[in-house]
Amino acid sequence: MDVNPSGAEPLLLPEPKRLGALARLAPEPMKVVLNWGRRYSLWVFNFGLACCAIEFIAASMARHDFIRLGVIPFAPGPRQADLMVVSGTVTDKMAPAVKRLYEQMPEPKYVISFGACSNCGGPYWDSYSVTKGVDQIIPVDVYVPGCPPRPEALLQGILKLQEKIARESLEERYRTAGPSAAALQSGLVKPPAPALEGDAR
Q: Which positions does UniProt annotate for [4Fe-4S] cluster binding (predicted)?
């Protein structure tokens, strides 16, 4: 509070920007550093399902070389990956596997839908066995159109995702309240009641 020398009412300084309970643990410069680290160390879990996967492979080769953007292709598995690139036709039979592998990825995780088939079903949108877009089963961050898209289109999609990561607030992304303690314990087996001291069995 600043005191006015004329003896009038004190001048109130503006309130600091309230960022939630964790703001004191992660100030703004730290958030910039964390987002910078996430932005330039994306381990990719490639989910190649059809011809778009060939374009993904071309984007990772020497001519286009998306490793220079901080994107590391071919993570060992979903638990080491940050980014899932779904490239190709997602069928209803394959959809549960895509969802299961997405759920195995640690947070924060991102998804690029690469090609018309994974965006909306592509030329097979009216087929009885094709999912009408991978966003029906998992959330998608960036859509790359084309049938098939060029490798340069994937590079542009990666740049758009990196711009999104650079300005993202993890507090807003994960603000939703988790399940209650009663819900977490609902399916658990209850332990036996402790025996009283004078109780002989």
A: 51-52, 117, 147
